[in-house]
Design a protein that fits this description.
With about 240 residues, the chain is an alpha/beta fold. It has helices at about 15-25, 55-70, 95-120, 145-165, 190-195, 205-215; strands at about 5-10, 30-35, 45-50, 75-80, 125-130, 170-175, 225-230. It has one domain (about 5-225): NAD(P)-binding Rossmann-like Domain (Rossmann fold, 3-Layer(aba) Sandwich), CATH 3.40.50.
Length: about 240
């Protein structure tokens, strides 16, 4: 087994930002373990796909098992999977609350705990969490309490883990996007969503991919919450 090439694990990898990350890391000759509930097998021998709900610890365990058995190591984890529900706070059901926490927090916990345990063995690694600028800058008309509750937790965990593992060669950072032009936003919504950003446009998938790749290469950066949001978090 050739274990000299770096390996990245990516959740929420079947479309949008996740799919963009898979391509970008492969372009840099990383081997990839990619997960989503609906992901299909890849014809690329350097991409292993694991279908399933990341909130299920067995799925996280399978991802780590595949990374080690196929590629022999884990260098980077990108926690991209997430659920966003924009509803008035009092309209959330218990099922919606439980689902948001299970994917956004349980999913993060399971795969990150398992991946860091492997990174510790090689005394190197990098975790990137994808969060949201709504944590820092709530917007009237975009009710987002469950996103703020869960992704805000990830922002806090990013800093805590960065300090806990700083002397063990493991960096932990986050990218905090504004509204990104992905398949979840229909074209009819783009003008309104663009207006939420001071720069007057939505973000592109490439904007987030570039931010993750910057953090990947920035060896002196850890505990950073990198806002990629067209100025949203700075104010209006």
């Amino acid at each position: 087994m050739n274990t000299s090439r770096k390996v990245v694990v990516i959740t929420g990898a079947s479309q949008g930002i996740g799919a963009g990350l898979v391509k970008a890391f492969r372009d840099r000759d990383y081997r990839v373990v990619a997960n989503s509930r609906s992901i299909k097998p890849s014809s690329d021998a350097d991409i292993v796909t694991v279908a399933g709900d990341i909130s299920d610890r067995a799925v996280a365990e399978q991802m780590v098992k595949e990374a080690l058995s196929r590629f022999g190591r884990i260098d980077t984890l990108v926690n991209n999977a997430g659920i966003f529900l924009a509803k008035p706070f009092t309209a959330f059901t218990q099922e919606e609350y439980a689902k948001a926490l299970s994917v956004n927090l349980d999913g993060f916990f399971h795969i990150t705990q398992l991946a860091i345990a492997e990174m510790e063995k090689q005394r190197s690694g990098h975790v990137v969490n994808i969060t949201t600028s709504l944590v820092d800058h709530a917007i009237d008309g975009v009710p987002s309490v469950l996103a703020s509750l869960t992704k805000g937790g990830l922002n806090a965990a990013t800093k805590s883990l960065a300090i806990e593992y700083a002397k063990r060669g493991i960096r932990v950072n986050a990218v905090s996007p504004g509204v990104i032009k992905t398949p979840m936003h229909g074209p009819e919504t783009h003008a309104a969503l663009a207006s939420l950003h001071p720069v007057g446009r939505m973000g592109e998938i490439g904007d987030i991919v570039d931010a993750v790749l910057y953090l990947e290469s920035a060896g002196f950066v850890t505990g950073e919450i990198l806002h990629v949001d067209g100025g949203q978090s700075a104010g209006h």
